[in-house]
Every structure is written in C-alpha cells, then in structure tokens.
Amino acid sequence: MTDAKLIDGTVFSGKLRETIASRVAEMKGKHRITPGLAVVLVGEDPASQVYVRTKGKRTVETGMNSFEHKLPADTPEDSLLLLIDSLNKDPAVHGILVQLPVPKHIDTQKVIEAIDPAKDVDGFHPVNVGRLAAGMDALVPCTPLGSLLLLKDNLGKLGGLDAVVIGRSNIVGKPMAQLLIRESCTVTIAHSQTRDLPSVVRRADIVIAAVGRPEMIKGDWIKPGATVIDVGINRIDLPDGKTRLVGDVDFASAVKVAGAITPVPGGVGPMTIACLLRNTLVACARQHNLPEVEF
Ligand SMILES: Nc1nc(=O)c2c([nH]1)NC[C@@H]1CN(c3ccc(C(=O)N[C@@H](CCC(=O)O)C(=O)O)cc3)C=[N+]21
Fold it and tell me: Is 122 in the pocket of ligand 1 (CB under 6 A)?
C-alpha cells in the first residue's frame, strides 16, 4: 500500500490567513474598523513566550492590531482580573486571549469567566461552550475548529462517518466532538478509562488524537484508509541531548495505514493560530453588527 496523503497545515493555514487578510482590508476600507486582538501572558515560560510572539506576528501580518500584555509570574489574581475588565471595555479590542496555563495561584476558571463572551476568541467561556453544544452561533475553540477545516478540505462532507476523539479536554476533545456531531458524524469520545482503545480506534473513519501522550496511537490501531488528525504537540528528549516535536500518533507506523494524516509540526498547530485570527475577525464583525464572515 502507498503511504498516506500528508495533510499540510502550513499551506492550508497560509491560504486561510490570506483570506482573512483580505477581509480585514475590506473592513478597514469600507467601515474604518481595524480588528484588534489582545494576548495576555502571565509568567516567563519560554515555550509560551515563543508562541505569543508568533501570534503577535501573524496578527500584524493579517492587518489587525495586536496588543500584548506581559505580566510577571507573581501577578495577583485581582490585577489580572482588572486588566481583563479593562480589555472588555476597550472598543479597540475585539478578541481577548489569556495564554494558558496561568500560574498556580490564579484560578483558571475565574479568568475564563471574566472575559466578555463576545470577545472570548478561545471559545472557553461557559456561554460559548453552551452555545456550541446547543447548535447556536458561538466562538469555537481554535484547535478543534482548525482540525475540522482540515477534515472538510480532505473529505468534503463528513455526514455518517465514524469519528473517534481520543481525549476529553475542554480545550480540544469536548468541543471537537461537538463540531463532529454538528457535521452528522457518529462520534465516540475515548479517554484513559476506555476499554480496549485499539479496537475502538479501529472502527473509525476519522481519528482525532488529543491525549497529550507522545506517539501513543500506533499504526495497527488505524483502519486502512482512515483520516488521522494529530493534535498532540510533545517535545521529547533525544539520546544526543537534542529535542524533537512529536504528536500523539506514532507517525512512522500510522502513515503506512492511514489514507491521510497530519504531520507534527506543520499540521494542526499552524491552523490553531489561523483560527484565532478568524475568530477575532468574526468577533469584530459581530460587535459592529456587520454581516457574518463565513469560512
Ligand atoms: N488560551 C490559550 N489558547 C491557546 O490556543 C493556547 C494556549 N492558551 N496555550 C498554549 C497552547 C499551545 N498552542 C499552540 C498553537 C500553535 C502551535 C503551532 O503553531 N505549532 C507549530 C510549530 C511548533 C514549534 O515548532 O514549536 C506546528 O505545530 O507546526 C503550537 C501550540 C495554543 N495554545
């Protein structure tokens, strides 16, 4: 059998960002509105710093305003909540993202609930979680949304397909399952207590791997021809002291069996950032009662 088709998230996200940039230009030209994204980082975690820098760069490239707020690791919870309140009220800010995880002395749920749901471009606020579950217009979490766009680009209509989502987090697993239900897939959510995970995965036309365990899902778990979306981003240590990024899927064995598969890096990761910009544009349009932008 020939190897699986590679689903190129770098190329696809680049095209998506070009589309977003042209809508932003139109919004600036026609309506004199520049969409703005505020990103808040608490602490100095090096991976988070790199990631926030990339987001800021992409935001500006797309023609939007980027507002970065870097706070020390010992920032009191109250100060963070006050900053969020001021961003909620700032008319130049249409989207707010607080980089997670936040330091342990800060209550993550309190932070999420402090963000105005209309500006919650992560889609983590209970109002957006509920709206997605109820099939209403919502701001949808970026990683599941990016994964869905890749699936639709590869498979077209998803109705009737068997999808298995491995992982039940609020950030990926649960919203991913909601999106797949909305597309009329038959959805199974697997997790650490699922019995005989390999045989559950073997049923699936669509496999979404979001467990956070390096290379856990093996090729012989995959139904031949299935589409595999690897959401995992794990940095592993190599014997020579260097590090390497790997997904939750054992790529070398899965690529022999799957019909199509996302690589890590260069798969879902870049789509997450593109969808963040997409959500900022959508949020901006809604806040100004402009016609919906559809992607
Ligand atoms: N409130 C919040 N929202 C988030 O969306 C959020 C967050 N907090 N905290 C951290 C995680 C992580 N995350 C990534 C997004 C893109 C890449 C990405 O573009 N990765 C590239 C390159 C990775 C590399 O080379 O390091 C790739 O996979 O090809 C990675 C990681 C969003 N997160």
Answer: yes
